[in-house]
Amino acid sequence: MSILLVEDDRAIADGIVDGLRENGYSVTHVVMGSEAILKVRNGGITTVILDLGLPDMDGTEVCRQIRAFSHVPIIVASARETEMDRVDVLELGADDYLVKPFGIRELVARIHAVIRRATGTGTPITLLTVGSLVIDTKERSVHVGGDSVVLTPKEFDLLTYLAREPGTVFRRSDILRDVWQTTWYGTTKTLDAHVASIRKKLGNPAWIESARGVGFVLKDQS
Ligand code: CA
Fold first, then answer.
1. What's the 8 CA to ligand 1 centre distance in angstroms?
2. Is 99 helix (H, G, I), strand (E, B) or coil?
3. Per-residue burial over 80-92, b = 16 or more CB atoms within 10 Å of its CB, e = otherwise
4. Spatial separation of the C-alpha atoms in residues 35 and 165, rounded to whole Å
C-alpha cells in the first residue's frame, strides 16, 4: 500500500513518514500540490494525506483537481479547524479530515477506514468485530457473545477507539486527546474509571489490558 503524503512542513512530514513506515506502509512524500496531482495521475497510490496550506496551491484546489479524475481516498490533515473548512473539504470530495496535531495511530485508523470504505460497497463500515465482541458504530450498540452490553456514551467511544486496532497499545495521552478531546492529564483518573467499568460490563477484564505506564490495548478474548 502506497500512501502519498503532501506536506510542506518538514518536521511534520518526517514524523508522519516515520510513523507510517513503522506501521508497514510505504510512503511517498511531496511538498507541492502540483506534484501530488501528478503522482496520483501516475497511479499506485492507495491513499492521499493532504495538507491544506501548500507552497504552490491551496490543498482544497489539489483535492478538487484529483477528484476530477480519481476516486483515491483523500484524508485532509490541517491545522485549520473551523467547521467551515471541514464542510468545504468534504464537499470537495475529501473522505476524512484530521486536525493537527494528531497521533500516528489515529492517522493509521483513519487510513484503514477510508481504504475499507473505498474497497467496499461504498457504504461506511459500521460493524467492528473483534472475536466475540461486536460493535455497531451506527447503532452504537455492543454485543459480546450475542449478549447486549450497555455502555455510557464515553465508554462506547473509548471501547470503539481501542477496537479499531485490536492488539495495538494506545497511549494515555492519545486516548485523552482523541476520546476526551483534552490534554489535561488530570483526566487520566477518569480514563482508568472508564476502563474499569468497561471491563466489568464486558464480563472479562482481559479484554482491555493495561500496558504499564503507557496506555491500554484491546485483546481478542474469543
Ligand atoms: Ca502547510
1. 5
2. strand
3. beeeebbebbeeb
4. 32
Contacts of 116 (CB under 8 A, 6+ apart): 125
The span from the CA of 3 to the CA of 29, in Å, is 8
pTM above 0.90, yes or no: no
Q: Which residues, in sequence order, are bridge partners of residue 50?
A: 6, 76
Please give the chain's pLDDT, 222 residues, in tens. Answer: 589 999 999 999 999 999 999 888 889 999 999 999 999 988 888 899 999 999 999 999 999 999 988 888 999 998 876 666 777 778 888 998 898 889 999 999 999 888 877 765 444 457 788 888 988 887 788 999 888 999 999 999 999 999 988 888 999 988 988 888 876 666 678 899 999 999 999 999 999 999 988 999 999 887
CA of 53 to the centre of ligand 1 (A): 4
| C-alpha of residue 5 to centroid of ligand 1, in Å | 12
DSSP secondary structure letters along 55-98: SSSBHHHHHHHHHTT----EEEEES---HHHHHHHHHTT-SEEE
The alpha carbon of 136 and the centre of ligand 1 are apart by a number of angstroms equal to 36
**Structural domains of the chain ordered from first start:** 2-119 (3.40.50.2300), 127-218 (1.10.10.10)
